[in-house]
Amino acid sequence: MNHQGLLNHFLNFEQAREYLGQIPAPTLREWTSRSIITSYRPGKRVFYRVSDLDAFMERHIKRSLDSLTF
Predict the structure, then answer these.
(1) Which domain holds residue 45?
(2) What residues are paired with 23 via a beta bridge?
């Protein structure tokens, strides 16, 4: 499946960690519990929509780039 087909696709916790660049599990748990990153909980499992992860990364990459001085 190409990236465009993944936009509304959901990832589980481990898949989301991998998608975000192998971030540490405690980091993703904290971001999830503090609603820093959008997640969905049908029951006890947690899922992340690819488009939400992309938006999260876009916001944080922009902030990081804005802080650079050349």
Answers:
(1) 3-66
(2) none
